[in-house]
Amino acid sequence: MNTTVYLCDDDLDSIFTAVYDAWASRKGHNHVRLQMNRTATMELFCDYITVVPNAAKAESVSRSIRRKISTKAWHMVYRAAMSPEDSRADDIYRFLIGGFYYGACVVDMLAEPAVRRLQELNRNIANETHYHKEFLRFDATAEGILFARIRPKGNILTMLTPHFADRLSGENFLILDVGRRLAAVHPAGQDWYLASLSREQAESFLSQKPDEYRDLWKTFYDTIAIEERKNPLLQRNNMPLWYREFMTEFL
Amino acid sequence: MLIQKDLTLQQKLEILSDAAKYDVACTSSGVDRGGQSGTMGNTASCGICHSFAADGRCISLLKILMTNACIHDCRYCLNRISNDTVRTYFTPEEICTLTMEFYRRNYIEGLFLSSGILHSANETMERMYQTLWLLREVYGFWGYIHVKAIPGADPALIEYVGHLADRMSINLELPTVDGLKSLAPAKSRKRILTPMRLIQKGIQENHHLISDKMAAPTSVSSGSKAVSLNDTALPDIRKFPDGLPDRAEDRKILLPGFSDRQNYGGSSRFVPAGQSTQMIIGATPETDHQILSVTEALYRQFDLKRVFFSAYTALNDDSRLPAPGTPPPLLREHRLYQADWLLRYYGFSANELLSEERPHFNLLLDPKCDWALRHLEKFPLEVGRADYAALLRIPGIGVRSARRILKARRYGTLNFDMLKKFGVVLKRAGYFITCEGKTCRTIRLDEDFLTGELIADDRKKRFQLEDPHGRYRQLSFFDDFNLGGQPEQEDIFKSFSGQI
To answer: What is the ipTM of this complex?
Structure first.
């Protein structure tokens, strides 16, 4: 029997709809596979179905995970869906097979390869989020709005922004995911929200003039290092180069 | 001493951060505190590093001196009175502005405030208190503050500062009394340990006080009133003519607002992230054994959160110190930190790791491997049966992997593949364990053989510390080393003198 491949998009709705369709097709778990749309390389002996995102189907999958497995499992699945791995949709599907069978205890069953894989995606995305808590830099505009640019591998904005919303509750700030053109907007004293920006809007933010504290920070950054202990390898281990694109000290 | 006043903020920052950079502790860990409306900041108990300087050390806090003017002449210190350097100071407002603006931009996690001694210990501590009060109460800073307690300052002052800070530290400077006497004549061990004890007691009392109050729900009134940000009047400590008041009764006058805001049953928390200290390594001829014994005593008797080691960077020209240009003993510092971890998390004691007869660490091996090699009678251990304490003592097994082993072996048997997935470093652990009665490779439990194998494993890390500038490296086939170029004048001389 041919394998049926369900092609889905990056967003959560699309992945959950694909899970719904693949499950409901009743072809058997070994005969279906989920794949991200943009990475699909066609294979022989496969039928390809492009998934049409459907909010009702996605909601029903989401609800089943929370009810039949656990909220913790739902959070794990959510974080995995935000990861940059191409295999994430299929990883989630495989995890859910075990999840619906074993129930809430599945999250601790590290001996299962599917569970371990999902934990791995979770750990990676959590690490990336933490790195961005460290290395994200705001620039203050003349109007006092804080503006940060990041280019994360995973879609971490929803996990990153609560940290800053708690910390800078009285500030107007905006974090722009440059690659996805997605922005987290936080008006002072209010709840934050996500906004998708057009190319022109994103570019208008990119052409800000430098902040006056930039030089002060660079001065501090340069003087705080001890010349006799210089160790670029250790520095790169702790702060990989790809995080440095928008960091004030390297601008 | 001439203090420069007409410097720009940038020049001051350069001077005062340069003077503070030899202080080691730059951690922002130990306390979890959520954000609050009307203030800026929160803290995370895991700590957040915000950058890494060119020396690879983390930058978490804005590490500055309040002033680099100092009345002491400690020989190892760059800010000693006999050094001819530019002296300056930050005003409290400048420190507050810098902290707030850096924090907003996510450059830092908080403030690390230290200082040279200006006129007297009390005056310095008083200024630090005013700065912190201004930062917490007027500027509404809610992030992390690490502050140095000045030895010799009034105990009451230290207590007030402790209610504004998250972590306090007092530098032990040198591990032995003799070292301190010869290099820092103005400081004495007693003057350093007294405030350390004071802070320890303060933390303990405060802990009981708060847990008592939290246990009695009726006594807490939830009506916390916010401090008006316009109220910029600093608490004037000098209004008490007979010096500072006894700490219990007048705390409320001196700490306006803070106890209201940190509403732990009406009391503010005292140094919630604990205290730490640091020692200079390599300036005096102490042995590793002495240093580690002192460290252990500090953890056991003073409840310190951390003891930091600072490899001495020889900059002062002084007959009692290593000559300027001596490279800092980085590998020794690394071994001491490894041993420090063994003391804190692995249940080792200083006397197990080192002794009078073996006072120094083996620079070629990490302290745990070194210990294991001297105790081969305890190995190999069966991971399926060994208890937690024994597992922790196996080289290549850490706290996390030991816990995973305990969990996993409840449900089934272990094998080496699983151990690897649990994070056990089989390169080291493989020589010391059996799994289901089998070893993972053919091993001889012989000290010489194992030493050779383990040294080879640690080589890369060691090399990186010994040669951080990358002077020596592997030749590559495709690099152009300009071997075919014309010999220069210098090369001709070298070939004459037999260097090439």
So the answer is: 0.91
